[in-house]
Amino acid sequence: MAKIKITQVKSVIDRSERQKRTVQALGLSKLNQSVEVEATPQIIGMVRKVNHLVAIEAI
């Protein structure tokens, strides 16, 4: 599978608990933090739920 780089670009303050936990499950905890993960269907689904909080780029 391809790898993607996910970067948190907006804060989770004033977001629903579900969105906060999704960002945390992606491995992000701070603003402008990045993680590289495999682009599995589960990860893609999580990114779609919080796409307004993160930036995605293919590696």
UniProtKB/TrEMBL annotation:
Residues 4-54 form the Large ribosomal subunit protein uL30-like ferredoxin-like fold domain. SUPFAM superfamilies: Ribosomal protein L30p/L7e (SSF55129). Signal peptide: none annotated. GO terms for biological process: translation. Pfam families: Ribosomal_L30. GO terms for cellular component: cytosolic large ribosomal subunit. GO terms for molecular function: structural constituent of ribosome. The keyword Ribonucleoprotein applies. Keywords: Ribonucleoprotein, Ribosomal protein. The keyword Lipid metabolism does not apply. Part of the 50S ribosomal subunit. PANTHER family: LARGE RIBOSOMAL SUBUNIT PROTEIN UL30M (PTHR15892:SF2), MITOCHONDRIAL RIBOSOMAL PROTEIN L30 (PTHR15892). Belongs to the universal ribosomal protein uL30 family. This is Large ribosomal subunit protein uL30. It comes from Pedobacter zeae.
